[in-house]
Amino acid sequence: FSVKATFPTKIAEYLSLGIPIICNNFNNDISKLINNNKIGYVYNNQSVYELHKFIKNNLNNIEMSVRCNKIAKDNLSLDYAYKIYKEIYNKL
User: Fold this and answer.
1) What's this model's pTM, rounded to 2 decimal places?
2) Using alpha carbons only, what angle is made at residue 13 by residues 26 and 60, rounded to the nearest 5 degrees?
């Protein structure tokens, strides 16, 4: 159960650097974040060819890099967390 309730810090760090994420389907929230925002690749036992194709197509993809950075800033940054926590505390 602990894996289902985690969010690896490295994901936010890589995305903030504009680096897409490649991972397996170990956490639904992470898989949804990656798939819904097209900021990486979730490996679900597809052929290695599909993974290789993703890497080749996105190795120097500026649009992907910008999208990764924007998602990190808009959803995973300290500024975003501060805003959300402030909203919660103001409701108390």
Assistant:
1) 0.79
2) 90
